[in-house]
Specification:
Elements: E1 4-7, H1 12-23, E2 28-32, E3 44-47, H2 53-60, E4 65-68, H3 81-100, E5 105-109, H4 136-154, E6 159-164, E7 166-168, H5 177-186, E8 192-193, E9 197-202, H6 203-216, E10 222-225, E11 228-231, H7 232-243, E12 250-251, H8 254-271, H9 279-285, H10 294-300, H11 307-323
Parallel strand pairs: 1-2, 1-4, 2-3, 4-5, 5-6, 6-10, 7-9, 8-12
Antiparallel strand pairs: 9-11
Length: 326
């Protein structure tokens, strides 16, 4: 069996994809930016960078499958060009390398941010969406990256696209922006919240959805990998229930959050340190990102568990990290 290449295997979703592949008997090659192992997993590691086509060609050589999970997942960057280099040019570089290597199938990890969501409604893969609707450089760069993947699929290369929602769970190393919600809650650093909503899913289900997309997905199609639509208030209440801590009860008006985001972002541009809440993240939060995963369930056999389990896994993971002093 040819190895499966996983980009981003040292990150949150990529680690779980690599773990599940190894559990199912696949030989996994992990693309990493720095030499070293992927924590806790017995995988082959190769050094490379999405901005370096030659390194991607070496990584893809001899592989049968590619799971392109790696991305620059930040809601703020002092130099936004870094996001486009990874999330747009990097996609083209990786898919070009995979095609040249004769890879049999690619699963490209997009984001729910590229799914059209009608105001006050539920989005799905058929909802029209345009670049001008993307709030912030992260969403814009991922939207453009998804267009690259669709371009390759239209050209006959077998690329299947998955759109995870807000994954939660263990092995969120950085943490990701979604995991930071749990970290802030556990530290008591979230005294208030705004009226927004997310679709929360267990990262283990997202990994399972990647493998199902590889096995059963149609090239050129997108599949939302989500679970439950929850308001931020509901998320915090569930976090309180599984952690035994109190949930904040103060809801901030949008204009107050916008002002705080604007001030924090202006300071970040001077200091270079990420703001606690960027202006773009506040703008993104104005729309509830509620979607349906019915297509993935129908076509892939995707069956996610409840959001509560994902939040409980995340609480245990970050609590253990705090106990270890990390």
């Amino acid at each position: 069996m040819k190895p499966a290449l996983v980009t981003g295997a040292s990150g949150f979703v990529g680690w779980h994809v690599a773990r599940l592949l190894t559990e199912r008997g696949h030989k996994v090659r992990a693309l990493v930016r720095r030499p070293g192992s992927v924590p806790e997993l017995d995988v082959e590691t190769v050094s490379g960078d999405l901005r370096d086509p030659a390194s991607l060609e070496r990584a893809a050589a001899g592989c049968g499958l590619v799971f392109h999970v790696a991305a620059d997942y930040r809601l703020w960057a002092k130099d936004s060009r870094e996001m486009y280099a990874a999330n747009v040019d990097g996609v083209r570089n990786m898919l070009t390398a995979a095609r040249s290597a004769g890879v049999e199938r690619v699963v490209y990890t997009s984001t729910v941010g590229c799914i059209g969501v009608p105001h006050g409604g539920i989005g799905d893969e058929n909802q029209p969406c345009a670049l001008q609707e993307m709030a912030g450089d992260y969403k814009r760069s991922k939207f453009l990256g998804e267009q690259v993947a669709l371009e390759f699929a239209r050209g006959g290369f077998p690329v299947v696209i998955v759109n995870p929602t807000a994954p939660m769970g263990d092995h969120d190393f950085k943490p990701t922006p979604t995991g930071q919600i749990v970290v802030d809650f556990l530290r008591g650093a979230m005294p208030a919240f705004i009226d927004t909503g997310l679709n929360v899913v267990n990262v283990k289900d997202v990994a399972s959805g990647h493998l199902l997309a590889c096995e059963r997905g149609k090239p050129g199609e997108r599949y939302i990998l989500g679970s439950e639509n929850l308001t931020l208030r509901q998320i915090l209440e569930q976090l309180a229930s599984v952690s035994g801590r109190k949930a904040p009860t103060v809801e901030l008006p949008y204009f107050v959050a916008w002002l705080a985001g604007a001030v924090g972002t202006a300071i970040a541009q001077v200091t270079g340190k990420p703001p606690r809440a960027s202006l773009e993240s506040v703008r993104m939060a104005r729309k509830k990102m509620w979607v349906s995963h019915e297509k993935a369930s129908r076509e892939l056999g995707y069956k996610p568990g409840p959001a509560r389990d994902a939040l409980a896994d995340a609480v245990r993971w970050f609590t253990n990290l705090q106990s270890d002093g990390r």
